[in-house]
Amino acid sequence: MLKDEPNENGTGQENLYRHVPSLNNLLLGPNFQGLLGTHERSVVVQATRDELIAVKQQITSGQLSQHNLATYLDVLPDRVSERLQSRLRYSLRRVINATGVLLHTNLGRAPLSTSAIDHIADVAAGYSNLELDLETGERSRRDVHAESLVLDLLKMRTGLAGEEEQPRAVVVVNNCAAATFLALDAIARDRATIVSRGELVEIGGGFRIPEILAKSGAQLREVGTTNRTRTADYESAISPATGLILRVHQSNFSMEGFTERPLLADLVSLGRRACVPVFEDQGTGLLTSLAPQSFPAEETLLESYRQGVDLIAASGDKLLGGPQCGLLIGRTDLIERIRANPLLRAFRVDKLTYAALEATLIGYLSNEERSIPILRMLNIPAGEILERSERLADRVRSPELSAEVVSAVSVIGGGTTPRAKLQSYAVALRHGTSHCQDLLRSLRHLQVPVVGRICDDRVWLDLRTVEPELDETLAALLAELGGGSASSKQQA
Ligand SMILES: *Cc1c(COP(=O)(O)O)cnc(C)c1O
Question: How far is CA 197 from CA 194, 210, 244, 486, in A?
Fold first, then answer.
């Protein structure tokens, strides 16, 4: 720390301020000529001004002595240069997610498969047939790049190929929130939408079902109670004003005890009888069964499709494991109304999203689910994580840094499957001289930031969410902390 004796009387401080050169004098100095030669003058001026303000703040807070100030001023041109360079550094960076939370919204949710990344790079590098039918040379819809893949996959996996009652179509938008909003606006504007009181939920990030309904102009018709809603409640609420029955996947919480909720199949058949479309905000986009894992059956996109829900909204970057987007899958007549809605233009996605989505879906269709990182992480056996954790702990353990392998639980996160717990292991770190909060911060300041979590006064790193290819990198990064640099690093 730079701090020496505090300056209580203020006279020392005033002296110090006088030693701080003026902006103009600084800029005339030889050290600044190089900077002025390589950067625009106004940018150098601004960066230097910011540095001078920082110096004065340090004097005010009593952190600089006369001696320190001289040293500080010597390196001022370097600090300005560093400031100029840091402006050009990427803000969005790759990080190592060692939280054990598979779908971490703050960390960008699903990582993409290699084929998705390659396809993005290829499509991004040049022009593409985003809206051009290469057969006819005519203009086409961008949704063709996902539509038949989504439908083929759903038919194949539900075994419904060829025996469908109604043709289906697909629209891709920015995210599932946009998909839900668009569907309500297109189908239920100025009409009543029946929703169970148990499903008037907040999904996260301020996405609240009642508010979304209000914004879309759909009128909320609540039925049932928080814990129990029956098919009969929906049935008796149906009137000529009804435009839609909305079902919301209770994705980020679970209710236990005296609860009741109609089967999806019952709602679908009620909708058929009453000629009211059923729209499900399915959310997770789960296309596989989580059954091999030992947690409660999760509602899947497959099941919604199999039950014949008229319109389904799902996220692309949750358990589907693709790019951020929202899929709307439904009856052709409903999708046509969505396509005719002017909001679709505002919610549409770009070519990079189609590239990633298409590649992800092809991964499923060609039965290469292991190519999809989220599914791979979901299925890593705990024993494998234990081995990797032991290897990592052995490599990073030092007199400064203790590392012990502990039993842990990974979660899926991202507002999905709240009851799902995956048996895992973590490397629990403790630094000799820094508090665990400081250690956690030091990890974030490594060359490749590492994000862990605090548990029992230690920093836990759960390798379930770390690609095994990164184990080596992680070990090398952690070794830096072991050298006693854990606390000095974070000041850099
Ligand atoms: C996650 C989720 C959403 C929001 O999805 P985004 O793709 O983040 O917009 C909406 N509904 C449900 C049920 C969800 O689980």
Answer: 10, 10, 15, 50
